[in-house]
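User: Here's a chain of 439 residues. Predict its fold as tokens.
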Amino acid sequence: MNKQKKHRIVIVGGGAGGLELATRLGRTLGKKGKSDILLIDSRMTHIWKPLLHEVAAGSLNSYSDELSYFAQAKWNHFRFQPGTMCGLDRTQQTITLTPIFDNNGVGAQLLPERTVPYDTLVIAVGSHTNVFGTPGAKEHCLFLDTREQAERIHHHLLSRSLRDASDEHTIRPTTIAIIGAGATGVELAAELHNASKIMARYGLRESDTTTEMILIEGGPRVLPVLPERISKGVQRQLDKLGIKTLCGTLVSKISSKSIETRDGESIDADMIIWAAGIKGPKFLQHLDGLECTPGNQLVVKQSLQTTLDDNIFALGDCASCPMTTKAGETLNVPPRAQAAHQQASHLARNLANSIAGIELKDFHYRDYGSLISLSSHSAVGNLMGNLTGDIMLEGWLARRFYVSLYRLHQIALYGFRKTGLLIVKDLLERSTRPNLKLH
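Assistant: Prediction complete.
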């Protein structure tokens, strides 16, 4: 007697949404043998993207907090395969993966171009920074889309501090300009400001006052997409930290040491970091005719199915998903970590129901508020819910809630017991390592 063929679910992208989905499906459908779940990602390890600003500053050791995809797959009854998606054949229901080469793409070929079959395909490849065609941005800016880019920022910061520490008589002020005062830019500015203070304590700089931080925002205020009261609270904290903000300032050109604005002004900077705007990966524009926005997001229905193929789903930053507000407006689900988490949870239930012959349900986004980290001791934001209403938080308590968001992500991946052990591990390490990564 032939065994019944397992339903093949292929998930492309191991970010917060994709990895949580693979883990949830593995614990249910994979463990029971009802489906074969395959996760594909170009990297071998996962780190929660909202933590990258801490990696850039050195306040978080990415190698301590990274998660191996192979290990997570073994623990949770799904498979992992390294690869980068480059093509799709909807008729044959296969995706194409690019070849893999040794030594970061310059060595011998390890794996050839491959095709992977699927019955259900989920695309969760996230997003990266959008420079909007600004001349010089790609050549002269640092970015914060990946761990490698975050570590590059940390290396630049550490190198300048080491230079100053080696010759205390010729210390030159370092100006760091961050373009974009959204959540990423604000959190990065606060974290880098705190890092400069800690470096001074370890003798890497003569004084923490030798670092100047500038936030450049094209909108009228910092955090322009969040409620104004959060923006005002964050602005107060930035002023206290001495971080300079230039709102209503549009960038027209970038060189190695300066930023030109549309008003004709020039801003000198030793480090320029671009943290404004996002777009999906370019290959999404050419996926066998799937509907895509100009910002490289796949257009999906509220079921998270793509508009032209019910066997293909998309979630997270790479998906343009409609939602209706309380006021009756039709908008898109915002590209936020909590949205990817909610979509992963919803799709895990939906796919299980679909395989069982139950009709798919629509996804409904719930905004639980926003929290902006201002380094290790403070945060600003609001919490929203049926029990709490809309509560404004600021300071130490807001910071505790901010940290809890990462713990919830860990619980989704590891479960309560392992997450508890990780919390104990983090507490113990505080007494055995410096407050900042110094290498």
